[in-house]
Protein backbone atom coordinates (compact mmCIF):
# COMPACT_ATOMS: atom_id res chain seq x y z
CA UNK A 1 0.00 0.00 0.00
CA UNK A 2 1.46 3.39 -0.96
CA UNK A 3 2.35 5.78 1.81
CA UNK A 4 1.40 9.43 1.66
CA UNK A 5 4.28 11.62 2.75
CA UNK A 6 3.26 15.08 3.77
CA UNK A 7 6.07 17.46 2.87
CA UNK A 8 7.66 19.98 5.17
CA UNK A 9 5.72 23.22 4.93
CA UNK A 10 2.34 21.54 4.43
CA UNK A 11 1.03 23.42 7.48
CA UNK A 12 0.90 26.49 5.25
CA UNK A 13 -1.37 24.62 2.88
CA UNK A 14 -3.72 23.73 5.73
CA UNK A 15 -3.71 27.35 6.92
CA UNK A 16 -4.61 28.63 3.45
CA UNK A 17 -7.40 26.06 3.15
CA UNK A 18 -8.77 27.09 6.56
CA UNK A 19 -8.70 30.71 5.37
CA UNK A 20 -11.29 29.77 2.74
CA UNK A 21 -13.68 28.83 5.56
CA UNK A 22 -13.23 32.26 7.13
CA UNK A 23 -13.83 33.87 3.75
CA UNK A 24 -17.11 31.98 3.32
CA UNK A 25 -18.18 32.80 6.87
CA UNK A 26 -17.56 36.49 6.26
CA UNK A 27 -19.47 36.42 3.00
CA UNK A 28 -22.36 34.61 4.69
CA UNK A 29 -22.57 37.32 7.34
CA UNK A 30 -22.62 40.00 4.64
CA UNK A 31 -25.34 38.21 2.69
CA UNK A 32 -27.44 37.89 5.86
CA UNK A 33 -26.98 41.57 6.68
CA UNK A 34 -27.90 42.69 3.17
CA UNK A 35 -30.85 40.27 3.07
CA UNK A 36 -32.21 41.80 6.26
CA UNK A 37 -31.66 45.38 5.03
CA UNK A 38 -33.46 44.59 1.77
CA UNK A 39 -36.29 42.66 3.44
CA UNK A 40 -35.84 39.65 1.16
CA UNK A 41 -37.41 36.67 2.95
CA UNK A 42 -36.25 33.09 2.78
CA UNK A 43 -36.39 30.93 0.67
CA UNK A 44 -35.73 33.54 -2.05
CA UNK A 45 -32.11 33.44 -3.15
CA UNK A 46 -32.29 36.81 -4.91
CA UNK A 47 -34.49 39.87 -5.13
CA UNK A 48 -36.62 39.95 -8.26
CA UNK A 49 -35.24 41.98 -11.18
CA UNK A 50 -37.81 44.77 -10.82
CA UNK A 51 -37.31 44.90 -7.06
CA UNK A 52 -33.54 45.16 -7.44
CA UNK A 53 -33.92 47.88 -10.07
CA UNK A 54 -36.12 49.95 -7.74
CA UNK A 55 -34.33 49.32 -4.45
CA UNK A 56 -30.62 49.99 -3.84
CA UNK A 57 -30.82 47.70 -0.78
CA UNK A 58 -32.22 44.83 -2.88
CA UNK A 59 -29.60 45.41 -5.55
CA UNK A 60 -26.80 45.31 -2.95
CA UNK A 61 -28.28 42.11 -1.53
CA UNK A 62 -28.20 40.54 -5.00
CA UNK A 63 -24.59 41.64 -5.43
CA UNK A 64 -23.56 40.22 -2.04
CA UNK A 65 -25.39 36.98 -2.79
CA UNK A 66 -23.75 36.72 -6.22
CA UNK A 67 -20.26 37.33 -4.80
CA UNK A 68 -20.84 34.54 -2.30
CA UNK A 69 -22.29 32.20 -4.93
CA UNK A 70 -19.42 32.87 -7.31
CA UNK A 71 -16.95 32.03 -4.55
CA UNK A 72 -18.79 28.76 -3.87
CA UNK A 73 -18.70 27.91 -7.58
CA UNK A 74 -14.91 28.17 -7.81
CA UNK A 75 -14.03 26.87 -4.34
CA UNK A 76 -13.90 23.12 -5.17
CA UNK A 77 -11.35 23.70 -7.94
CA UNK A 78 -9.21 25.87 -5.70
CA UNK A 79 -9.35 23.48 -2.73
CA UNK A 80 -8.59 20.32 -4.70
CA UNK A 81 -5.87 22.01 -6.69
CA UNK A 82 -4.32 23.50 -3.56
CA UNK A 83 -4.10 20.15 -1.79
CA UNK A 84 -2.72 18.33 -4.84
CA UNK A 85 -0.15 21.04 -5.54
CA UNK A 86 0.68 21.20 -1.84
CA UNK A 87 1.77 17.57 -1.77
CA UNK A 88 4.74 18.50 -3.96
CA UNK A 89 5.04 22.29 -3.60
CA UNK A 90 3.45 23.41 -0.33
CA UNK A 91 4.67 27.01 -0.36
CA UNK A 92 3.47 27.53 -3.93
CA UNK A 93 0.10 25.96 -3.12
CA UNK A 94 -0.39 28.01 0.04
CA UNK A 95 0.64 31.19 -1.76
CA UNK A 96 -1.80 30.60 -4.59
CA UNK A 97 -4.68 29.71 -2.28
CA UNK A 98 -3.88 32.65 0.01
CA UNK A 99 -3.79 34.97 -3.01
CA UNK A 100 -7.13 33.62 -4.14
CA UNK A 101 -8.67 34.23 -0.68
CA UNK A 102 -7.28 37.77 -0.55
CA UNK A 103 -8.58 38.50 -4.04
CA UNK A 104 -12.05 37.22 -3.07
CA UNK A 105 -12.13 39.69 -0.19
CA UNK A 106 -11.47 42.56 -2.61
CA UNK A 107 -13.87 41.04 -5.14
CA UNK A 108 -16.63 40.91 -2.51
CA UNK A 109 -15.95 44.40 -1.20
CA UNK A 110 -16.19 45.76 -4.72
CA UNK A 111 -19.29 43.78 -5.61
CA UNK A 112 -21.29 44.80 -2.53
CA UNK A 113 -21.09 48.45 -3.56
CA UNK A 114 -24.06 47.64 -5.77
CA UNK A 115 -22.02 48.21 -8.91
CA UNK A 116 -21.00 44.79 -10.28
CA UNK A 117 -18.21 46.32 -12.37
CA UNK A 118 -16.44 47.22 -9.09
CA UNK A 119 -15.86 43.54 -8.31
CA UNK A 120 -12.59 43.56 -10.23
CA UNK A 121 -11.16 46.69 -8.66
CA UNK A 122 -8.04 46.45 -6.55
CA UNK A 123 -6.89 42.85 -6.29
CA UNK A 124 -10.18 41.31 -7.43
CA UNK A 125 -8.78 40.08 -10.74
CA UNK A 126 -5.91 38.29 -8.96
CA UNK A 127 -8.34 35.48 -8.14
CA UNK A 128 -8.67 34.43 -11.75
CA UNK A 129 -4.91 34.24 -12.12
CA UNK A 130 -4.56 32.29 -8.87
CA UNK A 131 -7.28 29.84 -9.98
CA UNK A 132 -5.58 29.24 -13.31
CA UNK A 133 -2.21 28.79 -11.59
CA UNK A 134 -3.72 26.26 -9.14
CA UNK A 135 -5.23 24.29 -12.03
CA UNK A 136 -1.96 24.29 -13.96
CA UNK A 137 0.23 23.44 -10.97
CA UNK A 138 -2.03 20.62 -9.77
CA UNK A 139 -2.17 19.22 -13.31
CA UNK A 140 1.63 19.30 -13.41
CA UNK A 141 1.92 17.52 -10.03
CA UNK A 142 -0.68 14.90 -10.99
CA UNK A 143 1.03 14.36 -14.36
CA UNK A 144 4.39 13.82 -12.69
CA UNK A 145 2.85 11.25 -10.37
CA UNK A 146 1.36 9.37 -13.29
CA UNK A 147 4.64 9.45 -15.22
CA UNK A 148 6.59 8.30 -12.17
CA UNK A 149 4.41 5.19 -11.94
CA UNK A 150 4.57 4.16 -15.60
TrEMBL record:
Its main location: membrane. Keywords: Membrane, Transmembrane, Transmembrane helix. It is a multi-pass membrane protein. The chain crosses the membrane at residues 77-102, 123-148. It holds the Pfam family MAPEG. It is found in: Membrane. This is Microsomal glutathione S-transferase 3. It comes from Hohenbuehelia grisea.
